[in-house]
Here is the input.
Amino acid sequence: MKVFIQIPCLNEEATLPAVLSSVPRSIDGVETEILVIDDGSTDRTVEVARAHGVQHFVRHTRNMGLARSFRDGVHYALAHGADIVVNTDGDNQYPQDRIGDLVAPILAGEADIVIADRQTGTIAEFSAFKKLMQRVGSAVVNGAADTDLPDAASGFRAYSRPALIRLNVVTEFSYCMETIIQAGHKRLKIVSIPVTTNAKTRESRLFTSIAQHMSHSAAAIIRSYLMFKPQAVFASLTTLFAALALVPMIRFLVLWAVHGGADGNVQSLIFGAIMAVAALLSLALGVLSELQRTNRILLEEQLERIKEMQYRGDLREAPSWESWSTEAARRTEQTGRP
Here is the structure.
């Protein structure tokens, strides 16, 4: 059993020593490895990590964002035999001494994913508006994922190896909400444990304002919801447009029947026809999206098998184009045939 603790970093030389010094080197006899993901740092983040004994690194030459850092870190960890991957931050926001509690439900076979509840209502640095948005955001994610998590935006998490093989992060902003929605619809068991965060060390580098964070999070939630529940979205739109089409059309027919003419009421018929077309378009999009959803499920099942083989070592790196063409030329020279 091996636990990889990955730490995405962007210019964290000031806070990284505190993080590394508080990360447990073993958890109930389970081997732990620390992985630092350098997301284009321009300071001494890597040198500080090496000085504290870190041996595993993923380095980006420029800033790629939190979601890409998470994906690359997970790939590295799984390729190096990780059974559990814990994600924390380089700004020392999270209590690393609780990592043992975070992985315990997975070790016991009681959960696939464990998410720390920061108890945002008690964080002094959060404004009343931010606390409200945290509650609203978690409620929206829970509604989209059919889960009941108090802190959906928390990045202090532990994932089992099977869960990571089944999850596919496609967003470029943040993986937090997307993985919850995917996990909920793939029937993975998610557990939440309460933690107390450390004092704030700096402003967030993931977003420049709450408005930006809300817009990006909303886009990620909508995208994920459309991936897993397109029929609910387009069925609702079809029903809405159909109702908007029926009301003016019925009004037109009633007035025509009562007064024996349609003078002055043609606009109702035109509006109803437009809404009827919108309803048909929504219905067609719903059928197409449902077919795409079925196709995506089949593709994801194939991807899971590929990941399982890849991380078992059954797959070898494909030859480069140069090596393939060289080998083809050699065979042609020997046999006279391509």
About this structure: The longest strand covers residues 30-39. Residues 316-338 have pLDDT under 50 and may be disordered. Residues 260 and 320 are 78 Å apart (CA to CA).
